[in-house]
Design goal:
alpha/beta; Rossmann fold; 5-stranded antiparallel beta sheet
Amino acid sequence: MYFKTQKLTVGYNKTPVIKDIEIEINKGEIITLIGSNGAGKSTILKSIAGQLSKIAGTVYLDEKDISEFSGKELSEKMAVLFTDKINGEMKTCEEVVSAGRYPYTGHFGILSVKDKEAVEETMKIVGIEDLKDSDFMKLSDGQKQRVLLAKALCQEPEILLLDEPTSYLDIKYKLDFLSVLEKMKKEKQLTVIMSMHELDLAAKVSDKILCLKGDYADRYGKPEEIFNDDYISTLFGIDEKLNEYAKEKGIDLF
């Protein structure tokens, strides 16, 4: 088992948001967290990334307690792409992507030949080589998200954490983004843990789904075990009246 949590409890100021999270992930799997707004998806991801202190429990990466990794060791294993805005002012896209090489460049941030090759290769994989010299701040949201994905992948991580990576993107950019993740999963055995609101997309790209409800993880399993109208209605608190409205309008819940 490549990644697992054991009775992980996360929250803020020692107040739990989600308790006793137990998940196991094989290398090269895509895991998606779903649940209503405020369910704790971002809190879990930030706790795994070390941006928030966990309240209890253990996170294991490659059978080692994640707290035992040094900052450099963890940055070589794990990359994050969260919804927080980054300061890309006065930077080209190539410079933003190059920042993903920081675990390997030392204190002075000087790129080696190998680093420059990694930047070039990653931009090509994500399909943004034509944006190399463009001003990052002048890009569309979809283009920015692809540049930030390239930055994360340029870190050459084994595991990638993503918080709502396709929010605010049009359907083309959503599909572009997810196709790159699946490509990296197949070719590099990249493990992905992400949160998503788009249930239909989550069902298509995920190997496993973690469902958050109240202060606990309600279900964890394969998409076909999770996605049915009755359960999704319960998970998101959709009452009978709204269910009838959805059916009347031909709206799929996932």
